[in-house]
Write a structure and sequence with these properties.
heterodimer, A: seven-stranded mixed beta sheet, 11 strands, B: four-stranded antiparallel beta sheet, about 0% helix
Chain lengths: ~110, ~120
């Protein structure tokens, strides 16, 4: 069964450093998402991406964040200058996009900012 | 505003007993509703969805959910709980915005099934 894959599974970084979280969505999917989940809290929407551009973003997704799909398969989330409060589990998801279909989620990347 | 609420942080049930995990929604227009499950240190796995049609939808692992428009609810049920059902369950509503259909999640309900 096709699945969304994310790397790395765990990333530790120092405050102020840049991190790139990587995702490979399911190959025939058209819509891509990033979510985050701070420990013990709800799953929060960050950004959606379609047709090589951001289609929606939340208030959380400020100028420190960026996404891109550099090669038609990978979908990356970059945090330019990490803060302690960026520590969370980051989930990538993708969706076929034909009608109201369910999103498929990756296993997540646990980001720890120290 | 469009949102989904899960009123219980935790549900405890004995193995073999029926379980219900509650979800209510607030959305303008027709809701598209989903349930996901999250096992420890794992991503969210899709369980079931309601788009249109029959109010009772059946999903993976024996779970089902009933869409109730008058009560704006989408409670998930299972007739006989298993210890392996213990996990975090998330209800989600789709917001239709320019076709991006962004799933918005509730806070999650921790289901604990006791042997």
């Amino acid at each position: 069964e096709p699945e969304v894959t994310q790397t790395p599974s765990h990333q530790v970084t120092q405050m102020g450093q840049e991190v790139i979280l990587r995702c490979v969505p399911i190959s025939n999917h058209l819509y891509f998402y990033w979510y985050r989940q701070i420990l013990g809290q709800k799953v929060e929407f960050l950004v959606s991406f379609y047709n090589n551009e951001i289609s929606e973003k939340s208030e959380i997704f400020d100028d420190q964040f960026s996404v891109e799909r550099p090669d038609g398969s990978n979908f990356t989330l970059k945090i330019r200058s990490t803060k302690l409060e960026d520590s969370a589990m980051y989930f990538c998801a993708s969706r076929v996009g034909q009608g109201v279909t369910e999103a498929f989620f990756g296993q997540g990347t646990r980001l720890t900012v120290v | 505003a469009q949102s989904v609420a899960q009123p219980e942080d935790q549900v405890n049930v004995a193995e073999g007993n029926p379980l219900t995990v509650k979800c209510t929604y607030s959305v303008s227009g027709n809701p598209y509703l989903f349930w996901y499950v999250q096992y420890p240190n794992r991503g969210l796995q899709f369980l079931l969805k309601y788009i249109t049609g029959d109010n009772l939808v059946k999903g993976s692992y024996g779970f089902e959910a009933e869409f109730n428009k008058s009560q704006t609810s989408f409670h998930q049920k299972k007739p006989s709980a298993l210890v392996s059902d213990s996990a975090l369950y998330f209800c989600a509503v789709i917001l239709s915005s320019g076709g991006s259909y962004i799933p918005t999640f509730g806070r999650g309900t921790s289901l604990i099934v006791h042997p």
